[in-house]
Fold:
Amino acid sequence: MFEVIDEKQNVKTVKILLPHEEVEEAREEAYADLSKNIKVKGFRQGMVPKKLLNAIIGTEKVNEMIKEIVADKALDILYEDEKFQKENLMLPPALVSVDLGKTTNAVFEIHNYPEVTIESMDGEKIEVPGIDEEGIEEDLEDRLQELREQNVVLEPKDEKEAIEIGDQVELEYNVKEERENPKEFEIVIKDPEEGKIFSDLIGKKVGDTIEFEEDNGEDEKKSVYFMTVKRAYKRILPNLDDEFAKTVDNDVQTFEELKTKLRNEIKKERERFVEEGKIAMVLKKLESKTRLNISEHSLNLFINHVIARQKREKEYERALKDFKGDEEKYRNTLKEELVKYLKIKGAVEKLSSENDIKISEDEIFENAKNSLGYLGVSDERLKVMLSKNKNFYDRMRDEVMHRKVAEELLKTVKVEVLDTGEEPLESGVSAEEEEQND
Structure:
């Protein structure tokens, strides 16, 4: 059993009293470890007397070893306590002190996820972009062009014919010093203004070779490359007619039917985008209406944990580059992101509880399927991933819960659909709200 001796914001300071036998076990364990690892002339390894060990190592250092073992035992007691298991831990318990006095005890800090308070969202306004009809037509043209590109006919060019804009060319290239290991790639020739490689190739013929240099930096010599034209093709795009429509879609008979079908698909995609925008903006608004009761000490400890993990995984230096090596700026950014995360996490949990919002395993599975469907992951494989990978499962579950809470909030807020060309507030909050948050 642990005793709460102090509680401020989301941090509890607790004391665990250890039974006498646990302390004696810790003491014997410490001396046994020392005796095994120290060689003393005249004594067999593991049989060095305690008094001699104290004299060699020093009583203070021996006590530090005992305290470490006592702390581990106290932590085991803490984790086994049913009352502790109900705590909403944000971080692992942090050791404060160990007292080896008459009553041995260990003191830990418990950092829980902070409680939140949420201002009313009733009548709040959020802005989302409207559906741009002109944009739909532009997307339709792009979609049709993509279909033409996918059904292009390649007609081999005569070796004497010069390469022109629009041709497709197969190239072989290598470094001057490694000519025995050529690599191949293909490219569609575009306007020379879009890249020097196009101006180099226009006018060339099959069999021509281009030599060029690439600067590798001040301290390294330039690399010399050779690029040889192996094959060239005239690209013949199909006409946009009924035959083309039937070729690319078995469900249509005319080009107009194809356009109508594609237009409807694009409109549905944009409508889904608007719905996603509503979800995102109402959650932004929720964040602005949420207050955290969190200790600065907890925030700093959490950031220390993140940075320690990044250093272990050799990610820290790379992350710091984006901040030009400014560690303080990086820490402040991490803190801002952490506060946002904790606000939304706390608010969603609170609102889901108040509104009795439940989610099923089927909903979690469907969300995972939608998230990874484009990768071709099978249903069985997905189920294994959800059962074995807790982080993945939690992320999929949180996404479903966030959406359900957002949908509940959308019943109480005012949604303003903007005219074409108008941009919604990027943060989702007004200038007055931003001042309040600061």
In short: The chain has three domains: 2-112, 152-236, 255-293+328-437. The domain at 2-112 is CATH 3.30.70.1050 (Alpha-Beta Plaits). The chain has a mean pLDDT of 88. The first helix runs from residue 20 to 37.
